[in-house]
Inverse folding.
C-alpha cells in the first residue's frame, strides 16, 4: 500500500465512523474515556518503555534539551493525561444541546442543535500527551479524528494509541472514531492535507513554521494560531503594585508559552515610577530587555538593556527577552497593539473603568484582559475543561478552543404542516 | 491607476474604516440605515433610470428573461429595499453583546463579547438589491464591506451606492465603511480574492459555478452554499394530507430557490396511497417527474414521467423537475440523503416523534425539518431579520446567516491583580 492509499484508507474509515461518533450516547463516550484512562494506568510500563526508545533515538539525533523535555512522558505527565480524560467525563456533552428557541408567528418552532463537525485531522509535534488530549476531546465532542504526531514520538504515540484502541473496543464504540497515522513517512501529512472529501477541519499544534506550512498547503479549514505577541499596557491610572506583579508574572512564569507577554507598554506618566524596579527585577530573573529610547532614559541605574529595533515589536521571543515601550497614553497603546500585535492576548492594568472598557472593546484579540496576567489565556483557566488549541482567527472559534469549538450548530424546524 | 492598485486602495480604505465601523454606536448605525433608506426614496427616479440603462444593455446582449427579471428594479423591489433597511434599524445590535459569563475560583470574571469580523468582500451577480441588503447588514454588524456586483447591473449599483454614500455622510460615519467596486473589469474580482491582508471574509452570491470558482481561487475564508439538493421524506407514519401539501409547496411554490425540494423520498408502505394523487397534481403544475422503477409501478395511471438515472439524485434542478424514490423506511431515507444530499435543507413528514428525532439528529444539513416545507429555510422566516446568505459549511455560521453570522466573539477577562 502506498502512503497515499494508506492515508485515504484512514480517511474512508474516519468518514464512515462519523455516524457512530455522532450517534454515541454520553454514557458510551464517558465509558470509553474512562476505559482509555484505565488502559493508560494498566500499560504505564509499556508506555514509558516506548517513550524511552523515542527519547534515546531523539537524543542520538541531537534533539535539544527543550524538545527532549517536551517529548518525555514522566509519571506526572501520565497522571495528568488520565486525570484529563476523567475530567472530560465530567464535562457536559455538547452534542445534541439545544439553544436559541423561537416560535414564529406561523407556529414554526425553530432552534439550534449542537452537532459534531465530522472528521478532525490533528497534526502535532513532540508532546505525546496531545495524542490523549486530542483523542478525548474529539471523542467527547462526537467527532472522528485522525492523529498525526511527530516522527520523534512515534513509539510513545503507538503505545498510547494501543490504550485508546482498547478503550474504544471495551466500550463497544467503533474503533474508526480515533485513528493514529502509524507511518512516520512525511508524505502522510501532505496526503492528509489534500483529503478534503474526508477531513472537515485540520488542527495543527506546534511551531509557527509547521503551522504556517500547513495553512499554506491545505484547502481544508484550519483552526490555528501562528503568533502570540502578547502585550501588557500599564496605564497612567494603574495600581502600580498590581502592575508590577502582573508584568512579572506575564513575562517570567513561563517563557515558551504563547500567552507569555512579549512587549510591555507603559504610559509616560507612570514610566519613571514603575519601570526602574520592574527592569531591575526582570534583569534579576535573567530577562534581556530591549527598550525604546525613552525607556532607556528612565531606567535609573539599570544598564543591562539593548535598544529595540522595529523588528522587536513584532517578535514572539518565546524566551527570556522582553521589549518595552513608553506610550503617550491609551490611544497610542491601542494603535501599537493594532499595528504590531498578533490578535492573541493583550491586557491593560488600570483603575479607570472607562479606559478598561475602551481597551476591551477596541483591542481586536482573542482574549482581552483587565488587571490580570496574559498567562491566564488558557482553556483550563477559562473553565472550558480542556483545550484542543488556541485560535487567533476570527471565524468559527476564537481564543482557547474546548469542546464547543469542536462542534457546529444546525437549525431544527418543527411544524404541524405549515406551508409557504 | 491599474485595477490592482485600485482594488488595493479599496482594501486599504476598508481596513482603515474597520475601527470606525466597530466603534460606531447603535444610534449612529441606525441613523445611517434610515438615511440610506430616505436617499433611495428621494432618488428613486434616478435609480430606475440607471436600472433601465442596465436592462437595455442586458437585453441587447441577449440576457435571458429570468436574468432580466432578476436585474429589474421595480417599484416593489425599491420598496422592499427601504423596508429591509428600516427593519434592520429595529434589529438588536450584535456588537458588544456579552454572553457566557463565568466567575472562576480565583475570582477572574470571564465572558464573551460579540465583535465585528472586519472587512467583508461581497461578490454577487445580477440582483442589484443585494447591494443594499449587504451594505445594511454589514453596517449594522459593525463590519466594513467592499461590494462587487455583476457588470450587468453596474449602473443600478452605482445609483444605489450614491444613496449609501449620502446616508453615511449625512450620519457622520466614515464613508470607507461601505465601498462599491466601480470598475466592471473582471480582474477586479481576482484582485479582491487575493487581498487576504485586507479582507477577512468573502461572501459570494450567485450561481454555483461563480461560487465554486471563487472558493477555488481564494485563500480567504468563504461563507457559501454551492448546492441545494433538498429532500422531503414521507414516512410510513405521515399524515398523508399534510405530506401532500408539504410536498406540493416544497416543489412548486418557487422553482429557482435553493430551498426548493429536488428529490421526494416516500416510504414503501404509503407510496401507493400518496404518490398517484401527488404525481397527478405535480404534472398538472407542469412539473417533470423523474422516478425510480418502483415509483413508476405505483403511479396508477400517471404516465407522464421518465426514469431517473443516478445523476438525478445529485441534481439541483432549479426548475419544474422532481426526482422521486421509494425507500424501505427511515434508515434508507437517511442513507440516501447522506449520500446524495448537499447538507442544505431536508424535511421528514411523520407523526412518529421518535423517528422525527432520529431524522433531526442524524441528517447532517444546515436546516433539518419536521412536518413543514423546506421553503421555510430562510433568514426572514427564521426571524433573523434578514440574511446575507445561506451557509452549508459547518464552520463558523451554518444555515441562513444574519447579523450574528457576520460577527465573532472574543474572550473578556476581568481581574483584580490575579497572577498565575
Amino acid at each position: 500500500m502506498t502512503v497515499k492509499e494508506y492515508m485515504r484508507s484512514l480517511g474512508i474509515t474516519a468518514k464512515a465512523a462519523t455516524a457512530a461518533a455522532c450517534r454515541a450516547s454520553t454514557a458510551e463516550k464517558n465509558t470509553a474515556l474512562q476505559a482509555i484512562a484505565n488502559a493508560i494506568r494498566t500499560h504505564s510500563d509499556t508506555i514509558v518503555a516506548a517513550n524511552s526508545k523515542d527519547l534515546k533515538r531523539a537524543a542520538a539525533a541531537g534533539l535539544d534539551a527543550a524538545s527532549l523535555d517536551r517529548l518525555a512522558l514522566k509519571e506526572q505527565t501520565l497522571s495528568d493525561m488520565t486525570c484529563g480524560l476523567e475530567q472530560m467525563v465530567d464535562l457536559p456533552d455538547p452534542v445534541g444541546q439545544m439553544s436559541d428557541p423561537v416560535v414564529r408567528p406561523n407556529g414554526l418552532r425553530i432552534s439550534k442543535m449542537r452537532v459534531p463537525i465530522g472528521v478532525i485531522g490533528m497534526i502535532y509535534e513532540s508532546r505525546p500527551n496531545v495524542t490523549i488530549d486530542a483523542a478525548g476531546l474529539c471523542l467527547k465532542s462526537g467527532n472522528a479524528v485522525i492523529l498525526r504526531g511527530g516522527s520523534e514520538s512515534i513509539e510513545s504515540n503507538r503505545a498510547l494509541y494501543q490504550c485508546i484502541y482498547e478503550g474504544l473496543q471495551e466500550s463497544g464504540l467503533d474503533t474508526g472514531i480515533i485513528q493514529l497515522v502509524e507511518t512516520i513517512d512525511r508524505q502522510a501529512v501532505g496526503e492528509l492535507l489534500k483529503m478534503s472529501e474526508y477531513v472537515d477541519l485540520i488542527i495543527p499544534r506546534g511551531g509557527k513554521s509547521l503551522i504556517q506550512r500547513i495553512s499554506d498547503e491545505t484547502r481544508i479549514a484550519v483552526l490555528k494560531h501562528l503568533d502570540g505577541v502578547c502585550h501588557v499596557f500599564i496605564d497612567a491610572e494603574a495600581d502600580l503594585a498590581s502592575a508590577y506583579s502582573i508584568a512579572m508574572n506575564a513575562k517570567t512564569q513561563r517563557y515558551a508559552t504563547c500567552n507569555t507577554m512579549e512587549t510591555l507598554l507603559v504610559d509616560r506618566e507612570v514610566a519613571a515610577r514603575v519601570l526602574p524596579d520592574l527592569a531591575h527585577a526582570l534583569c534579576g530573573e535573567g530577562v534581556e530587555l530591549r527598550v525604546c529610547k525613552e525607556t532607556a532614559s528612565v531606567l535609573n541605574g539599570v544598564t543591562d538593556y539593548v535598544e529595540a529595533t522595529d523588528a522587536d515589536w513584532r517578535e514572539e521571543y518565546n524566551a527570556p527577552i522582553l521589549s518595552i515601550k513608553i506610550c503617550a497614553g491609551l490611544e497610542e497603546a491601542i494603535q501599537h497593539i493594532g499595528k504590531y500585535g498578533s490578535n492573541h492576548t493583550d491586557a491593560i492594568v488600570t483603575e479607570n473603568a472607562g479606559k478598561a472598557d475602551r481597551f476591551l472593546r477596541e483591542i481586536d484579540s482573542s482574549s482581552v484582559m483587565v488587571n490580570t496576567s496574559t498567562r491566564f489565556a488558557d482553556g483550563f483557566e477559562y473553565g472550558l475543561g480542556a483545550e484542543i488549541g488556541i485560535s487567533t482567527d476570527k471565524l468559527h472559534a476564537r481564543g482557547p478552543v474546548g469542546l464547543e469549538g469542536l462542534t457546529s450548530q444546525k437549525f431544527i424546524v418543527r411544524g404541524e404542516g405549515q406551508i409557504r
Remarks:
- Chain B touches chain A through 65 residues (CB under 8 Å).
- Chain B has a mean pLDDT of 95.
- Chain B has 14 helices and 16 strands.
